[in-house]
Design a protein that fits this description.
By secondary structure, the chain is an alpha/beta fold. It has 17 helices and 20 strands. The two termini are 31 Å apart. Bound molecules: zinc ion and copper (II) ion (CU).
Length: 488
Amino acid sequence: MAAYDIVIRNGQVADGTGKKLYAADVAVKGDRIAAIGSPGSLRGDNEIDANGKVVAPGFIDVHTHDDTALIDNPTMAMKASQGVTTVVCGNCGVSAAPYTRPDVGHWMSLIVKKRENICKDFTAFAAKVDAAKPAINGAFLIGHGTLRLTTMGDDLNRVASASEIKTMNELLDQSLSQGAIGMSSGLFYAVSSHASTDEVVDVAKPLGKWKGVYTAHMRDEGDHIIKSMDETFEIGRRVGAEIIVSHHKCSGRSNFGRMVETLPKFTEAMKKQQIAFDVYPYVAGSTILRSDMLERADKVLITWSDKIAGMSGRDLKDIAAEMGCSMKEAADRLQPAGAIYFMMDEKDVQAAMSHPGAMIGSDGIPFDAHPHPRLWGTFPRVLGHYSRDLKLFPLEDAVRRMTSYSAQRFHLAKRGEVKTGYYADLCVFDPATVIDTATFEKPIAPAQGIDTVICNGAIAWRDGKEGGGRAGRALNLQQMQEEAKVEA
Ligand code: ZN
Ligand code: CU
């Protein structure tokens, strides 16, 4: 019998730290990386030839809405096919717990298909995820919008009262004690836009005590982005939490080029407090259909509509022409619906992605009928298009922004590096051919060049197909911190 369960032989290791590629065998035993040896030196029951390929840590998708997709689609093909082995869920203020209302509602429908997948407390939700045996790991933020819906009912167009703030604070405290990794807010969205800075601070206070992160879909990513950055940084300081600004962008044609303001502002602030941000590699965003967003977009594609069938994937301009009405009127007729908005500048996206504070997150929306291609394409697109073809940054740095940097910022202990003793989350890919194939026209398509994806020692994806491994877990921040202490 061989010493190891799996040996990935003769690959070039990109260890996740940014260190230069080096040739090695990587051995897996159980759920851990058991040894790293010189090429050809290790033997395993299952040997995977990685000659000419790169062996990287499994990618961490730090910005997702996959909370209940892990339960409904446990093989997680849209992420495993990209080399992703951990998804950070609960972003933008919407999470699957703690939630008590009987209905799903419009806001929660962004991440939920079935009411039974959302839970009144985090422990119950994490147990559901574990019971579904997903192929990859999930780590979970608690959404401030979800806390508001649960606590304030439909009376959301105001600042929460003192007693409501106390309730939300306690719900967050309990969820963090149960292993949630932080809190997200989405002050841009109707459910939370009436919340004051003080409200968010008072709700988010438990983050400091539990070492949870604060992620922010900021109040404004357009004309008032600087003010919104100040608000976000202030919340982090007052709460004593590390900050992740979500999907950093300068939105709308009139704001194109403003990365020359926002990025130096990040650089300055990063000297004083722990701040980072995530970016997806596209000039279009996607969320619910909102008529106030139509003006700032050069083009709008419909991703789903509950009202009118057959609209998914179509240009709103064509729909409006057919209906013989304005785009705003057409949007109203399609509601509730989702959309893709072309509203960013390519140069801005590249500048953001290359900043020292940037990591990669897809922001894919898993249940859309015609999703944004970032759901299936983000990571291979950064590796193939931006790193290899455009040479925006070296491959080792691209991998770092998807692995060790992300794990550090979200406090995911023992993940994000190819290192002995770390969890065996690995991605073997061909650096010459790796590329996204999902497009705005045909968004559901697995990437090319992703060879083998291993999560907790089990093969989640192999040779363009699901690998059968179902060893993903709901990661628990408190357990990870304990484990890191014990093993340090
Ligand atoms: Zn968002
Ligand atoms: Cu998001």
